[in-house]
Design brief:
Blueprint lengths: L2 H5 L2 E4 L4 E5 L2 E4 L6 E7 L13 E5 L3 E4 L3 E4 L3
Parallel strand pairs: 1-7
Antiparallel strand pairs: 1-2, 3-4, 4-5, 6-7
Length: 76
C-alpha cells in the first residue's frame, strides 16, 4: 500500500463510532520497517483558522482493521 492511499483513509474509533479524521503522518521502526504509530490531527475542520493541538497518536497495536476506505481503531 502506498502512503498516498494510506493517508486518504478515514480513521474511526470502535469504542464510540466517532470519526477521528484522516491519517496525517506515521512513525515506523527503521530496523524492521514496521509502522509503530499513526498520527491523526484532532479538532475541527477549521484547524488552520483555530489552532488545535489535539492530535491523536494511535499505536499500531490499537489498529484493529485496515479496510479499502477506513481504518478501525480501538482507543480510549
Amino acid at each position: 500500500m502506498l502512503y498516498s492511499e494510506f493517508k486518504s483513509k478515514e480513521v474511526i474509533n470502535l469504542r464510540d463510532c466517532r470519526r477521528l479524521g484522516h491519517v496525517a503522518d506515521f512513525e515506523f521502526d527503521e530496523c524492521t520497517g514496521c509502522i509503530r504509530r499513526i498520527t491523526v490531527p484532532g479538532g475541527s475542520r477549521f484547524r488552520n483558522l483555530f489552532r488545535c493541538d489535539t492530535d491523536y497518536e494511535i499505536s499500531y497495536c490499537d489498529i484493529k482493521q485496515i479496510g479499502p476506505d477506513i481504518i478501525l481503531v480501538d482507543v480510549k
